Task: structure prediction
Amino acid sequence: MGKKKKIEWVKLVNNSILEGSGFYISYNKRTGASEMRDSMTILANALGGNVKDGEETALKDGEIWKILEGDYREEYEEAFPSIVKCRAVYDKYKDKHRSNWSTD
Result:
C-alpha cells in the first residue's frame, strides 16, 4: 500500500487553505477579526441574516460556498483530495453546523 500524501495547508493573512482540483477548503480560526468584518456581521444581522463570527471551515465548490461553523479540518483532510468526499463531509454536518454565510 502506498503512503497517503501529506496534507499541507497554506497560511494566508486571516485563514489557511487546502487547494484541490477546482475547489478549495478554507479554515478561519476567528472570523470577524477586523472592524470591517464585524461591521459586515452587524449589517447582515440587521437585515435578518442570523450570522455569527467565530471559527469556521468552508468548502468553495465552484461558485458555491459551503460553510460550517467550527473546525472540520481533520474531516476534510481525510476526504481530500476527492471533491465528492469533501461534499459528503459538508453534507454530514450541515443540518446542525451550517453557517448562514453559506451560499448553497
About this structure: The two ends are 37 Å apart (CA to CA). The mean pLDDT is 84. The helical segments are 35-46, 73-79, 83-97.
